[in-house]
C-alpha cells in the first residue's frame, strides 16, 4: 500500500483519527460475544441469550460445514473436482449469517457460501456440480430461497437489492407479521467492495430503503491482494457515506455474527432499510485450490489467526460449561463421517451431462435457429454411432 | 374498433400503458422515466397513472438499473428498463451478457428472465458523442438474449407489448430519430404479426433490400426512387435481429437473385455480415451477385456535422443496387 499522505488540516479531519488505522484485531468497534479463548462476553447493543440447544446446533453446523470443505478440497486433489473455493476459517461468519435467516428471507451468495447453503437445506452434493463441471448450479433458487453461486464478483449485490425492492412491492416488509415480513442477504467479500456493482447496490438500496443486509466477509485477502489494497478505512465505515449503518462483527464468533445479522435482518424486515455487516475474519486456506498463498503472505499471520479458530472457541465454551457430553461429540463425529462418505461417493457418481444438454434452457422459448443447430448436432453424433455400428 | 394516428413515441407509450394495464407485474425503471416521462417522453404520464412503485426513477447508474431489474425478475416481476441513450448501455454490459442472458441457462430454466431493455438507438439527430450508437450486433452475438428493432409507430405499439409478454430477455431497439417523425394509423383491434418475424414491407421483383430500425425508411425511399428508373426493389423489415427470421428473406432472394442489406451499425461483423453468410449458405445458386452491405463505416461515430456522410442514405443504397446489377 502507498504510504498515507501527511494530513492537511485545511481539508477536514485526519481520517486516521476519525476511523482509526486498519487493525489486525478488528479494532475497538468489533462486536464480540465469545472470545477466542471461549469466554462469553457481553455487548450493550447486540447481546442475545443462547439456549444450550441453540449453541450445540451452531457448533454442529460449523463442524459439518468444515467437513464439507475438507472433503471437497480432498476431492479436488483427487481430480474429482476441477476447482474448489475453500471456506476454512469462515464457518462462524457463514453459519451465524445463515441461521439468522427466516424461511421467507432470501440469500444471494458468492461462490464460497457453502455454510449458508447448508443452513438453507441444500444437499452439499449439489454444491459440487459447479466445481466438477457438470452444471452451473443444481438447486432451485426459488425453492431454497438461495440464489445460484455467482462468479462475477459483486454482481449479485444488485440482484439482492432488486429482489428486496420486489419484496417491498409485494407488501412483505414492515407489516409486523413475523411469518410474513422478509429481507434479503447479499454476500460478498472484501475484494468485491471495490466493485462498481456493490457500490451501486449500496446506492440503490439506500435510495429505496430496500430490505437488504449487505454481508461482507472481510477475510483479509482478495486472492493475493490484502485488504489495504481495497480500502484505506475499515469497510463497515463505508456504509455511513451511503447513508445507512455499518457494523463490524467478529466473523470468527458465531454468536456475535448470529446476533448482529439477526438484528440487521429484523431492521430490514421492519422497513428500516439496509445495513452493512462486515464480518471480520480470515481466509485460512487458499483463495481456491489453484492458489498458492505462500507466495504472498506470511505463515506467522496464519498462525496468529489459528488462535482465533471459530470452532475451537465454541467447543471450549461448551465443554467448560458442561453443555456437551462425549455421546454428543461421538454422534457428531459419526454424522460428519457419514456426510464425508456421502460427498465422496456422491461426487464420483455425478454423471456428466449428455452433450446435447448444452442446448437446453438457453431460452424459455427456443429459437428456430437454435433448434436447427441442436438437431444438426444430434444428427452429426448419430452419424458417428451408425458408422461405429458398421 | 379504435383507430388513431400516432407517432412512434406515442405508439410505444400506448403499448407500455397497455402492458401495464394487462399485467400488474410489469414495472418500468430508468433514469428520468417518472415525472419527466423520459428524455424522449416515451413514458410520459405513466408514473402519474401507475404510481412511483411501478414507474421507478432510478439513480444514475446503468449497471444498477439492469442488475436490480434482474433481482425484480427473480422475484416474479417483469421489469422494463430504459437505457437513456445507446452509448450509455455499456456500464450495464456485464449485467446484460453475464447475468440477464445466462440466468435461464445456468438455472436449468428455473429462473427465467422476462425483462425488456429498451434502448433508443441510431443517429441522425445532431447529437454529441455517445448519443448515436448502434450496438445491436454486440447483443445479437450473445446467446440467451433476443434482439428486436421496431421501425414504425404501429410496430412500436405491438412489439413492445409482445416483448414484455416474452419470458425471455429482449433487447428492444427504438430508432430515436423516428420517435416524433412520421405518423401512422393504429388499429388497436388488429392482430399483429408475431414478434420474432420479418416482414415484406414493399413487394418487388429485381432486388431485395433488407433493413431494420431507422434504415427501413431509407430503404423504402430508395425503392421509390429506383422505381422511377424502372427497377423493382423488394424491401424487407427484418424486425428481429436475434433470432433472425430468414424465411421471408430467403424466399425473396430466391426470386430476385440479389440482396443489399443496410444498417447504421458498423459493417464489420454486423448484422449484415450474418445475413449475407446465411443467404449465401442457403440460396447460393439463386444469387446473381454477392450480398452487398451498406452501413456505418468502421470508425467511431463521427462528429454530428458530418454524420449524414457516415449514415447510409438513399444514394448509398442506390449505389449498392447499381453495383449489384453490375455483376
Please write out the topology:
The complex is a heterodimer of chains A (390) and B (327).
Chain A: H1 15-19, H2 52-77, H3 91-99, E1 106-108, H4 114-119, H5 124-132, H6 141-144, H7 155-169, E2 184-189, H8 196-208, E3 212-218, E4 221-222, E5 225-226, H9 227-230, H10 238-242, E6 246-250, H11 254-269, E7 275-280, H12 299-306, H13 310-320, H14 326-349, H15 368-389
Parallel strand pairs in A: 1-2, 2-3, 3-7, 6-7
Antiparallel strand pairs in A: 4-5
Helix pairs in contact in A: 2-3, 2-13, 2-14, 3-11, 5-14, 7-8
Chain B: E1 3-6, H1 8-22, E2 26-30, H2 46-50, E3 55-57, H3 62-74, E4 78-82, H4 93-100, H5 103-106, E5 116-121, H6 136-140, E6 146-149, H7 153-165, E7 170-175, E8 184-187, E9 199-202, E10 207-211, H8 215-228, E11 233-237, E12 240-242, H9 246-256, E13 259-266, H10 271-282, E14 292-296, H11 307-310, H12 314-326
Parallel strand pairs in B: 2-3, 2-4, 4-5, 5-7, 6-7, 10-11, 10-13, 13-14
Antiparallel strand pairs in B: 1-8, 6-12, 9-11
Helix pairs in contact in B: 1-7, 3-4, 8-12, 9-10
